[in-house]
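We were asked to recover a plausible sequence for a given structure. The inputs and outputs are reproduced exactly as logged, with field labels preserved.

PROBLEM: sequence recovery
POSITIONS: 113
GIVEN STRUCTURE:
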C-alpha cells in the first residue's frame, strides 16, 4: 500500500514480550508491518520473544509503516535460554578441586611414579 500525505496515522502497538506470531498479528491489526533486524525470515519465526522494538509503543506512524523488532532466540540459537543455574540447591559438598585432585605425596603418585 503506498503511503501518501493523506494516509491516516496509527499508533505502534507494544510488541516487547510477545511471541513472534502474536507480534505479527498485533502489528497487522494496527496497520503496521514488521521487520526483524536480527532475523530475515520473520514469517517463519514463531516462538521467539520480542525483546526490543523501534519505534517505541504508542508512537504515531503512517499506516503501513515498518516497525523493527529484535528477538530473544532462546535455546538452540546461541542465545542461552537455559537461565541462571546458580545458586544450586542443595549446595555442593565442600572440598572443590582439592577434594578431587591428588596431592603430591599421595598413594596415587607413588603407584604411578
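RECOVERED SEQUENCE:
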Amino acid at each position: 500500500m503506498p503511503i501518501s500525505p493523506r494516509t491516516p496515522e496509527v499508533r505502534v502497538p507494544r510488541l516487547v514480550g510477545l511471541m513472534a506470531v502474536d507480534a505479527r498479528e498485533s502489528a497487522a491489526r494496527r496497520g503496521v508491518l514488521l521487520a526483524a533486524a536480527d532475523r530475515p525470515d520473520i514469517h517463519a519465526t514463531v516462538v521467539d520473544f520480542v525483546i526490543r522494538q523501534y519505534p517505541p509503543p504508542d508512537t504515531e506512524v503512517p499506516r503501513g509503516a515498518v516497525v523493527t523488532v529484535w528477538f530473544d532466540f532462546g535455546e538452540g540459537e546461541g542465545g542461552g535460554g537455559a537461565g541462571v543455574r546458580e545458586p544450586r540447591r542443595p549446595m555442593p559438598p565442600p572440598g572443590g578441586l582439592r577434594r578431587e585432585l591428588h596431592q603430591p605425596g599421595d598413594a596415587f603418585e607413588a603407584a604411578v611414579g
